[in-house]
Amino acid sequence: MKYKRILLKLSGESLMGSKQFGIDNQRLANYAAEIKEIHELGIEIAIVIGGGNIFRGVQAEEGGMDRTHGDYMGMLATMINSMALQSALETSGLQTRLLSAIEMKAIAEPFIRRRAVRHLEKGRIVIFGAGTGNPFFTTDSAASLRAIEINADVILKGTRVDGIYTADPFKDSSAVKYEHITFDEVYQQNLSVMDLTAFTLCKENNLPIIVFDMDTPGNLKDLINGKKVGTLVHN
Predict the structure, then answer these.
(1) Disulfide check for 203: which of 130, 183, 188, 197 has CB 3.0–4.6 Å away?
(2) H/E element holding 45?
(3) Which residues, 6+ apart, have CB-to-CB distance to 123 below 8 Å?
(4) Is the pLDDT of residue 39 over 80?
């Protein structure tokens, strides 16, 4: 097995499935099935999920709302998604723990690094909600930070595209996919993988990122089994 402990980063938008807004229950069930497959291989799994299908802090700022206020609202959106994913995983028979960067005693444990690691060691799937708990940081930054804190082997960034391309493959038919690329090459070519804060954290801590298509059944398991799926970003 190539990895023992992973951090899976999912976008909030991916939970919409074919909907325009909110959560598609079928998409949630599909993700739970994919995650269960790799859990049964003995992989320790932590998850960070965005909130863009419900609310984005940046949108609030564009509408004249204070950015800090909007970012906290976005953190609550990630908690809604995290609870939905937790429910789907538990319905499929998995044990989970939801840890929040903002204290919400009724629905989640507070984030404590040692506790998170202990849950992973016991085979529970750990979902990190509410981002970093700070405004001006994205859930990509939260994923990078949590992955480093729990000593994950890799960040698996599940998207709707099957890797990193020279250009947007939906807009440019001549775009070419990278099998692997270095952090420095991503900087030089100004490719969009994660926001710069998250990306720099991974580079400085030598934490590889694999960008792959989460919506294709079997991709996650193939990736864990060492097959070439998506694009690997490394030092």
Answers:
(1) 183
(2) strand 44-49
(3) 39, 44, 95
(4) yes
